[in-house]
Automatic annotation (TrEMBL):
Residues in Alginate lyase domain copies: 63-286
Pfam families associated with the record: Alginate_lyase
Superkingdom per UniProt: Bacteria
Lyase is among the record's keywords: yes
Signal sequence segment: none
Record has Cell division as a keyword: no
Record-linked InterPro entries: Alginate_lyase_dom, Chondroitin_lyas
Keywords: Lyase, Signal
Gene3D superfamilies in UniProt: Chondroitin AC/alginate lyase
Listed GO MF terms: lyase activity
Stated name of the protein: Alginate lyase family protein
Source species of the chain: Micromonospora tarensis
Length: 353
């Protein structure tokens, strides 16, 4: 999921050749704390996460251990050093032997963040490393602890549900659960349409079934008070670019995973992804917003989230994306947001596979 073996083989060749930007991105990953072979996992039976991770009882530990497991899995594949595979397994085993539940108001989002990353690590190890005795226990953890929390989504907010569907898709791929995958893709397509506006949606944005939005006032309120709608505007643009970036990233991750799995969603979500990236990159680069956009005030901070979508829509599909390209090049090597995005310059920059 997210990266195919062909993509990883391409990256490995570029790193071995010392080519840029992959060599710099690889060095960034390998020198990060997430690649440390002395890392000690910190699993908890119950991870309790309140709003904005307050309280934070295991929330940061869980997310960062998941990123470390994925980092180590990538490091193993790209270097051939088995110590990294063993470290990835150690981290995954520690959590699968311990965790039983997520609690607190942010539990669905926390579960979505962690479960977006765990399967990436697990999938690489499962198919490329010789021995993982506790792989079935890890699968049971995903099925019993994570999947029930994320599979039915959230009617509350766009970035939440998009992240939860990314997690569900990843879990479903690892478990080879076709029914969970199909249901998640259906919900994802609805939510992606409800998160990013296109003029073809009509005068007002599309609303997600079950959202309860049926009047213009309610819809505008849901879009942070924005009443002028243009291509690429997102439901949370006027909240801040950070949360908007989470949603855009999840859209790109699900589309990429589904492409690898043989179901191409880019004809359905690609134009929204392209427009969202271009619109937000334009203002992230510093252009002053007009008065009709969020009252002329934007809270920037899009994060390292452009590589996957830019590679899909520009490198592979040939779209000209000037603003997204400028921002993407400016941010290389894109690192991690310490939540569910990690090392995407390394895995997806100029990757034709």
């Amino acid at each position: 999921m997210l990266v195919s073996r062909g993509q990883l083989d391409f990256v490995r060749g570029q790193v071995q050749a010392g080519a840029q930007p992959w060599a710099a991105a690889h060095n960034q990953m390998m020198t990060s704390r997430y690649a440390s072979l002395s890392r000690t996992p910190a699993p908890r039976s119950v991870v309790e996460c309140g709003s904005y991770s307050n309280p934070n009882n295991g929330c940061t530990d869980e997310r960062e251990d998941a990123i470390a497991a994925y980092t180590d899995a990538l490091a193993w594949y790209l270097t051939g050093d088995a110590r990294y595979a063993q470290k990835s397994i150690q981290i995954m085993d520690a959590w699968s032997a311990t965790i039983t539940a997520h609690t607190g108001s942010n539990a669905p989002l926390q579960t979505g963040w962690a479960a977006s990353v765990w399967p990436r690590a697990a999938e690489i190890i499962k198919y490329t490393y010789s021995s993982w005795p506790n792989a079935n226990r890890f699968a049971t953890m995903l099925r019993n602890v994570y999947l029930p929390m994320v599979r039915n989504g959230s009617n509350s907010n766009g970035n939440w549900e998009l992240t939860m569907m990314e997690a569900t898709v990843g879990i479903a791929v690892f478990l080879e659960d076709r029914s969970a995958y199909d249901a998640a893709v259906t919900r994802f397509l609805n939510r992606a349409r409800a998160f990013v506006y296109l003029p073809s949606d009509g005068a007002l944005p599309y609303t997600m079934p079950g959202s309860g939005l049926d009047t213009s006032a309610e819809t505008i309120g849901y879009w942070q008070g924005q009443s002028t709608f243009v291509a690429g505007l997102a439901q949370e643009t006027c909240r801040d670019f950070v949360h908007t970036g989470y949603g855009i990233s999840a859209i790109s991750h699900v589309a990429e995973t589904s492409r690898i799995q043989g179901r191409d969603l880019y004809p359905q979500v690609g134009e929204r992804l392209r427009q969202a990236l271009g619109f937000h990159s334009r203002y992230q680069l510093g252009e002053a917003p007009p008065s009709w956009l969020c009252g002329g005030n934007l809270t920037r901070g899009l994060g390292p989230i452009t590589e996957v979508g830019f590679n899909a829509m520009s490198t592979r599909l040939g779209n000209v994306m000037t603003n997204t390209q400028t921002l993407t090049l400016q941010q290389r090597p894109a690192g991690t947001n310490n939540l569910f995005v990690a090392w995407e310059t390394l895995t997806h920059a100029n990757n034709p596979n």
